[in-house]
Amino acid sequence: MALADDIRLLSQVPLFSDMDGDQLRLIAFGAERRTVAHGQALFREHSPAECAFVVASGRFQLSTLGRDGHMQVEKEVGSGALLSELALITMVERKYTAVALQDSDVLKVTRTLFHRLLEEYPRAAQILQARIRDNLVRMAQAAAAMESRFQ
């Protein structure tokens, strides 16, 4: 796929959608494209997350290990999905096991690359800060709405 196609894909990912062409170009140029065969795991639940992945094509099933020891499907994602977004900021564990439902392509975005973006483009850091703040507000509102269930 051409660099222009990767830039277009990244511009459709909510985390990157407000970034300008230079910022997107930096990410697209530094990202590594990977092909994942049907049935192959991209990553496993609880493994260290050192990068995020943008689904360029194909579909992935995201599953967790249930209390009964069986994998439970949480959701399916396709083109434009960003997997392990928090790994761009800090070291975390994967929340899911991601398995390709068909031959798929992903862009691997490393934490180092993302930190470079934030250092070179302070405006990108401001966008990220606003998104994190908005997400925390929504989470707090959702938790407050469920408060009566826990009393």
Question: How many structural domains in the coordinates?
Answer: 1
Main sheet characteristics? 4 strands, antiparallel
Query: What gap, in angstroms, lies between the N and C termini?
Result: 53 Å
Just name the CATH architecture: Sandwich
Structure description:
The chain is α+β, with helices and mostly antiparallel strands and 151 residues long. The chain has one domain (3-150): Jelly Rolls (Sandwich). It is 35% helix and 30% strand. The chain has four helices and ten strands; from the N terminus they run H-H-E-E-E-E-E-E-E-E-E-E-H-H. A hairpin with a 5-residue loop joins strand 5 and strand 6 (71-77). The relative contact order is 0.20.
Search tags:
10 strands, 30% strand, 4-stranded antiparallel sheet, globular, 4 helices, single chain, 151 residues, alpha+beta, Jelly Rolls, Cyclic nucleotide-binding domain-containing protein
List the helices and strands and how they pair.
Layout: H1 3-11, H2 21-30, E1 32-36, E2 41-43, E3 48-49, E4 51-57, E5 60-65, E6 71-77, E7 82-83, E8 92-93, E9 97-100, E10 104-110, H3 111-120, H4 122-145
Helix pairs in contact: 1-2, 3-4
Could you give a short description of this structure?
With 151 residues, the chain is an alpha+beta fold. Helix 1 crosses helix 2 and helix 3 crosses helix 4.
